[in-house]
């Protein structure tokens, strides 16, 4: 029969040791996957190249989709970020509340420069933001991130196929996405919405790659990489397109 006093005493001695070992293992694992912010840490360089930046994002997405994201102390590292930021990627994302790029790619504060607009298309304001990120923050990667069941793309499909009418400034949003739906329709896909979402990402990637006077030159000089992907709402996985 168990001696409760002895059991409690043994538990009290073992638990701190186990916690220490687990903590050390956890820190080692985190350190292998990226920057571990601390109160006195310096922000690491983002001079890593577009391929490496994309690799880090996709590794983070794998952790997120597996429900094994890195644990973080969000209060740590804030002081270092006050003076500078060195994001590894700039992301163009839909404004959809179900899509959270920092979480989907399991990144720290300061790792991602984010531009959002419903339908994740490139307008002049967004383009200026990416020019700033590339020219002055030296991001090595721009990623266009669409997602399945996108309401903005679906609305555009309905306007073109069913002559639906939208109020306010929504027709301007439709006009921006319209070329992607038209191009996707030419292939007569079984799922027009899914095809248009992917095509919308491709068109945004193309515009960013060729945007003058800043981004095109940086892409040609291999100082900047532009890629695209589609986020699956159910699984959390990002598929590159």
TrEMBL record:
Uppermost EC category: lyase
SMART domains: Pro_CA (SM00947)
Domain of life: Bacteria
UniProt KW keywords: Lyase, Zinc
Annotated catalysed reactions: hydrogencarbonate + H(+) = CO2 + H2O
Record-listed E.C. numbers: 4.2.1.1
InterPro entries tied to this protein: Carbonic_anhydrase, Carbonic_anhydrase_CS, Carbonic_anhydrase_sf, TAT_signal
Annotated family: Belongs to the beta-class carbonic anhydrase family.
PANTHER family recorded: CARBONIC ANHYDRASE, CARBONIC ANHYDRASE 2
Protein name: carbonic anhydrase
Organism of derivation: Achromobacter piechaudii
Upper taxonomic lineage: Bacteria, Pseudomonadati, Pseudomonadota, Betaproteobacteria, Burkholderiales
């Amino acid at each position: 029969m168990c001696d409760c006093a002895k059991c409690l005493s043994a538990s009290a001695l073992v638990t701190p040791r186990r916690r220490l070992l687990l903590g050390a293992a956890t820190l080692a694992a985190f350190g292998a996957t990226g920057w571990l912010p601390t109160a006195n840490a310096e922000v690491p360089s983002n001079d890593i190249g577009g391929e490496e930046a994309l690799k880090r994002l996709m590794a983070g997405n794998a952790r997120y989709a597996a429900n094994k994201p890195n644990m973080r102390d969000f209060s740590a590292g804030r002081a270092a970020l006050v003076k500078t930021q060195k994001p590894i990627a700039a992301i163009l994302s839909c404004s959809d509340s179900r899509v959270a790029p920092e979480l989907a790619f399991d990144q720290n504060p300061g790792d991602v420069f984010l531009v959002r607009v419903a339908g994740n298309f490139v307008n002049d304001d967004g383009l200026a933001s990416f020019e700033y990120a590339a020219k002055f923050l030296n991001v090595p990667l721009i990623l266009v991130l669409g997602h399945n069941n996108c309401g903005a793309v679906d609305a555009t499909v309905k306007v073109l196929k069913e002559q639906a009418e939208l109020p306010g400034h929504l027709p301007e949003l439709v006009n921006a996405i319209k070329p992607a739906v038209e191009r996707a329709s030419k292939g007569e896909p079984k799922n027009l919405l899914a095809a248009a979402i992917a095509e919308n990402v491709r068109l945004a990637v193309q515009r960013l790659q060729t945007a003058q006077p800043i981004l095109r030159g940086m892409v040609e000089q291999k100082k900047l990489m532009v890629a695209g992907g589609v986020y699956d709402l159910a699984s959390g996985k990002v598929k590159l397109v």
